[in-house]
Amino acid sequence: MRSTKTFVITGGTDGIGAAVARALFSRGDHVVVIGTDPEKGDRLAREAAAAPGGLDFVRADLSLVSSTRRVIGEVVEAHPAIDGLVLCARYFRTHRRVTAEGFEDNFALFYLSRVLFSYGLLDALEKAERPAVVNVAGPGHDTPIDWDDLQSAERYDGVRAMLGCR
Ligand SMILES: NC(=O)c1ccc[n+]([C@@H]2O[C@H](COP(=O)([O-])OP(=O)(O)OC[C@H]3O[C@@H](n4cnc5c(N)ncnc54)[C@H](OP(=O)(O)O)[C@@H]3O)[C@@H](O)[C@H]2O)c1
User: Which domains does the chain have, with CATH numbers?
Assistant: First the structure.
């Protein structure tokens, strides 16, 4: 019999992340989804309750490094072995926003949270038999990364800022 696997999905409450979560709990796996909207999280948890697998919703603003670090600690404590990490969290903004910690929002959410999760879950991932990290982004796009202005301080364009973090 197939053993239950554990997956963590940042931005797992909506869009592609939620679709992956549904696929995983429907086949019997356990999923930890992270997002900011408790209604979306509770809705998914209700769906999972009727499925062979399970789901934990963790409410957190991953644009804050402090919050991301807290969640990583909680997830690792609850799940010493993790089979897969799926990185989907993003938020499109037409205007530049700086977080309370001083980072441009896309840079903090799309880039920093993904780096922190990838390294923060490394030990737990290495305990799984065949671990995988899937970074869901837009890597094929031809928008160049502005290495001199990674936080769009000089010129902000929402699409460009998001694609620059891919
Ligand atoms: N959709 C497309 O056509 C497409 C095409 C190519 C690539 N992609 C890539 O696929 C990935 C997922 O896209 P999507 O369309 O599925 O996105 P989406 O539907 O907009 O979902 C984004 C997810 O991020 C979460 N999120 C937003 N702000 C957050 C925050 N501050 N802290 C924690 N979670 C936060 C949202 O949860 P809450 O609402 O609960 O906060 C939601 O679960 C992105 O990286 C995107 O670039 C998408």
Answer: 6-163 (3.40.50.720)
